[in-house]
Amino acid sequence: xxxxRFIAGVxxxxxxxxxxxxxxxxxxxxxxxxxxxxxxxxxxxxxLSRWSGNMWIEWVxxxxxxxxxxxxxxxxxxxxxxxxxxxxxxxxxxxLFMYIPLSTLALGPAPSLIDGMAWGLWFLGHLCFCVSLIxxxxxxVKNA
Length: 144
Prior knowledge:
Elements: H1 2-31, H2 35-40, H3 55-79, H4 84-96, H5 99-105, H6 116-143
Helix pairs in contact: 1-3, 1-6, 3-4, 4-6
């Protein structure tokens, strides 16, 4: 049973992580605000900075975080019986506020901490992440 829950968390994290990445990439392309760049930025992490600019390494790191969130979400909803909307929302709010350290610690170009448009795009992307996490986990757990 735990393996099926683990797979449900992994698949939910993959789906939601891809949705977030695609949406933020589209927002960056359309608006010029570097929200996708911010999502993948690792230039300020000393032991990862040598791979900064390597899109595949940055994407794998993003997906690792998304899969971890998916697994924690399934753990909270299936084991601890949190309502799925509460669990997904709480985890997404934590991810949403990562804007602050990511924008202030970035060594390369990043949106300003006070850039309202970038905050708005970041928020919309993470709102889509939250909704896709709820939807995909409901589907994955039901099929598990």
